[in-house]
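Figure S4 source data
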Amino acid sequence: MHDRLSWAVALAGAVVLAGCGPPAAVVADEKDRYEEATRPAPAQTPAPAQTSAPDTKPAATCRLKVRVEGLKDANGMVRIAVFRAPDGFPAGHEKAAATRVIPAAPGGVEAIFEDLPPGPAAVSAIHDRDHNGELDTNWVGIPREGSGASNNPQSSFGPPSFEASRFDLTPPGQAITIRLRHFD
C-alpha cells in the first residue's frame, strides 16, 4: 500500500510539473482551505472595563462631642486631645490623634471632633490658664492647673492611665463630659 501511495504522489507531482493538474475548482477549494487554516484568529475584543466603582461602603466615621466642666475661671485656653493609643496619654498632646484649643469660658467649653474612626479612644483636657501650652506642675509634679480625662477616673497618685480613661468610640458618635480636677 505504501508503494501505491508513493507512486500516486509522484504521479501527481509529474502532472503538476507538466502543466496538467487538477481542475481549477479543486485547486481553488484547496487554496481556500489553506487560507482558512493559516488565517490569524480574529482579534479578541477585550471585555468592557467596569465603569462603576466596586460595591464598597465608605468606612463609618464618628463624631465626638467633648464637654469640659470645672474651670476655675475664664483665663487662658482649654486644651483637649483625643488619643487612640496609650503613647503620649494624657499630657503628650503632640502624639494625639486630634486636638482642639478653645478659649476658656465660665461654666465650661465644648469641642466637636468629626470624622474619627471607630475604636478605642481616651480624651484628656487641661485648663492652660497661663496659655503656655503645657500642664504646669509644682516641684513634686502635682498639677497647678485643672486637668481631667474621659471616664473621669479618680487617680490617687499620678496621671490617669489610658486604660482607665478608655472608651469605645462607635458610629455615629457620642458625647462625653470631663470634669477637671484641681489640686492646688
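Figure S5 source data
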Amino acid sequence: MRWNLPCKICRAMSTTLATLTDAPPKAAGRPAGTSSGKACTTKQSSSRRARRSSAQRSLSRAFETFQTAARSLEKSYGHLQREVLRLRFELEHTSRDLRASLEENARMRTHLARVLEGLPIGVVVTDSEGRILTANPEARRLLEPWAGQVGATAINSIFSELLCGARETPQSRHGEHELSIQPDSASRTIGVSCSVLGQELARSAAEKSVFLLRDTTEEKKQNAQKELIRRRESLAEMAALLAHEIRNPLGSLELFAGLLADATASQPDLRRWTDHMQAGLRLLSATVNNVLQYHSRPEPQLASLNLDRLMRESIEFLRPLARQSGLRIDFYNGLGDLEIPADAHRLQQVFFNLAVNAFRSMAIGGMLAIRIDWEDASSFRAVRIEFEDTGCGIPAEHFARLFDAGFTLTPGNPGLGLAVCKSVIEQHEGSIHVASEPGKGTIFTIVLPRERCER
C-alpha cells in the first residue's frame, strides 16, 4: 500500500529546493579585478553558502520528520493489519459456528419432521381459534374419513370446543376425551388429548395448541374382552365351587338310586322310574365332573387297566340313559383282555361324554356302536376306540369349533363335554378325531398309545 506524505513535509521540501535553485546567475560583462566587484561577489557567495547550509539543515529536519512519520505510519499499519486479521479470523470462526449451528438445526428439523411423520399417534397443531394448521399422516388417516362425513368446518369446531375446555379447566388437559365416528358404518373411537403451548393460557393470536389423537377402538374392544373373560373366570370359579358342593350329595343320591334299582329289578313298572332317576343323576354327575375337569385340569393318575372291563362298566353305567331314550348300545372288542396305561376315572368320563352326545343326536330306535381294536395291526403300538351313532350328523363347517369350550349344537347344553374329552385324551398322549355326514351319523375316533412314552 502506498501512503502520501504529510502536507507540511511536502511544503518544506519544496521551499528548500526552491531556495537551492534560486541563486542568481553569474553577472556577465563586468570587468574583473575591481575591488567593489570582488567584495560584492564575496558577500554574495557567503550569503549563498549560508542559505545553502540553512536549506540543508531544513532538508535534514524534513527527512527526519518524514522518517519519523513513516515509522509511525508503518507501525500503525502493522497494528491495523493485525487487527484486521484478528477480526477476519473471528468473523470466519463465527461464520463457521453459525453455519454448523444452521446445519445442526436443519438436521434436527428434518429428524423431528421424520419422527412426527412416523409417530403411531396422530398429532394436530391448531391456532388460537382451533383451526388446524398441521397434521401428521396418522392424524390425517384418522380424520379424513370423518372429514368426508361431517366436513372440515365441523372438525375445526370440535377442536375449538376442546381448546376452550382446556383453557377453562386446565386439569382437563391431562385427561383424554373420546370421539365416536362412523365413517363407513363401522364405529370407531378416537381418544383426543390437548396441550396449550406456552406457560400462560392467555388467548393470543400467536397461541398454538397440540392435540394428540389415537385410535382406541381396538383397545376398547380388548378391555371389553378382558372384562368378559374376567366375568367368565369368576363364573367358572363359582361353578367349580358349586360343583364341589354338589358332588358329595350327588354321590349319595346315585348310591340310593342304585339300591332302589336293585330292589325293583323284578318290578318293571317301578324299574322304569328308577331308570329315569338314575339317568337324571348320571347326567347331572357328568356335568359336575366336566366342570371340575375343565377348570381344574388335574393331572391323570395313570395305572395299568383292562380296557375291555372299563368299557363294559361304562356301558352298564350308560344303559339307564339308553333305555330312557329308547336306544341301543352295541359293543365289539377286537383286543381281548388288553391293558393300557390310563386314568380309569378320566377315561370313563370321556366315554360317558361321547355316548351322551350320541344319545342326544339320535331318535328313538337309534343305535350306538362302540368298537375297540388295534390302530395298526402290524405294529400293535396304539389302540383305536370308536363311538359311531346313527344320529343326524354334524355339518362340516362346525368341525373347527367342535372341541372348543362353550360350543354346542344342543340348546341348554354347557358345551364342555368334547372340550374335556380332548383335554383328557391329550393328557394320555393320544388323539381324538371326528368324521360325520349330515343325516348319516357321526364317528368319534380315539387313539391311545399301548405304552406310555417315557420323557
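The chain has a mean pLDDT of 77. The longest strand covers residues 188-196.
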